Amino acid sequence: MKIAVTALHVILSVALIAVVVLQSGRSAGLSGSIAGGAETLFGKKKGLDELLGKVTIVVAVLFAATALGLVAWK
């Protein structure tokens, strides 16, 4: 069972890295920093970025759960 949880943990770590890398950056120079504040204020996050944000949260929670499970396992 511990081998299965360890394998799942490794898969989740690779998936978390991939999902974070696929997300678009928050700034693109000076114009990005000015527009980024407006996007944060008015919530312009749509489409693929919104989906990747939700997937990131789910994968991060699963990753943390498997990490805690592996630490508690003795």
UniProtKB/TrEMBL annotation:
| Alphabetized UniProt keyword annotations | Cell membrane, Membrane, Protein transport, Translocation, Transmembrane, Transmembrane helix, Transport
Transmembrane residue ranges? 51-73
Q: Does the keyword Transmembrane apply?
A: yes
Q: Name the species this protein comes from.
A: Pelotomaculum isophthalicicum JI
Which NCBIfam families does the UniProt entry name for this protein?
Answer: secG
Per its record, what are the GO molecular function terms? protein-transporting ATPase activity
Q: Where's it found, cell-wise?
A: Cell membrane
What protein name applies here?
A: Protein-export membrane protein SecG
Q: Which GO terms describe its biological process?
A: intracellular protein transmembrane transport; protein secretion; protein transport by the Sec complex
Q: Which InterPro entries match?
A: SecG
Q: Does the keyword Zinc apply?
A: no
Q: Which domain of life is it from?
A: Bacteria
- Where is the major localization of this protein? membrane
Query: Which family does the record claim for this protein?
Result: Belongs to the SecG family.
Q: Which GO terms describe its cellular component?
A: plasma membrane
Functional description taken from the UniProt entry: Involved in protein export. Participates in an early event of protein translocation.
Topology with respect to the bilayer: Multi-pass membrane protein
In this record, what's one Pfam family? SecG
Tell me which PANTHER family the record gives.
Answer: PROTEIN-EXPORT MEMBRANE PROTEIN SECG
